[in-house]
Amino acid sequence: MGYILKEEAFSELIGRLLDSYRIFAPVRKKGAGRFPDVDAVIYDFVKSGDEIELSAKSDYAPKEFLTPLSETLFYFTEEEVKEADLDTKPVLVFARSCDIHSLKRLDQIYLNNGREKDPFYQRRRDLISCVLIGCSHSYDNCFCVSMDSNRCEDGYVFSVDAYGDEIRSDVRDRSFDEFFKGLNGAVKADVMPRFVTENEVKVDIPDKIPMSVIKSDFWDEYTTRCIGCGRCNFVCPTCTCFSMQDAYYTDNGRAGERRRVAASCMVDGYTDVAGGGSYRKKNGERMRFKVLHKISDFKKRFGYQMCVGCGRCDDVCPEYISFTNIIKKTGEACREAES
Questions:
Q1: Does position 48 have pLDDT exceeding 80, yes or no?
Q2: How far is the C-alpha of 152 from the C-alpha of 175, rounded, in Å?
Q3: How far is CA 175 from CA 171, 180, 207, 283, in A?
């Protein structure tokens, strides 16, 4: 059961929700893209329904609330350590099916990847509920159908689908009915979210990666093509790597703050270790590590693929390196190795 709303009623709905929630949603930023005349769709907190971008795929993932690019974890002095304050007002995250699926991957790493749960991630995770943005069509470079992330059966409180000047919402959490009731022109109806059933881009991920493919020289292509900017990692909804940085307020280093800062396996310096050592110095080696982690290593450990097929890595690469083409090349190399 759900509701059909006119645009005015949708704006009223968002206004009601803002009384109880913060809303983190895709927003179109004019001229914020690669070039002055190119827009960017990024995630931000909104103050009205008019700000929410429902028609375009976001350039960045909603994980930026859960894993900010830079987050102060705690402050310290000689006498005490104080955990950084966090706004505890609940958050509604507007996200597409693939991005809701990505939360399972983030939870796996931060909450179920060892004996202890990450408390800084957990306190943010406990605040959020998802609102599903329906997909009326497949976007450029998407391959979510191949990754089984095109449909979202649960994990959201209600959905939003734009049909001309109407918004259709499937309400899964009945406690949200109170926000819909009494909206001007709202009509109860049987509503189903729209999902993509076919992508133009398709991949077939090999079940096993032979050692001959891991050691293959086809990875060397990316030593020269890739510039190591790390954009593919920073826009990826499932990348979780970070580094720790201490910022000192005093010369003696006895007062300051510790920050968790997003990091990238593709960026120079990520594998530097004490004593001047460095692993995976070549960009081709880094590309191999990233790709095989996404389509093989993660699944070996947890039983499902890490990648959700959003295609943002292909969208953002300044060197036009296609992740899906690398998957296809890997599959071809595996078939040749088996023959």
A1: yes
A2: 20
A3: 9, 10, 43, 50
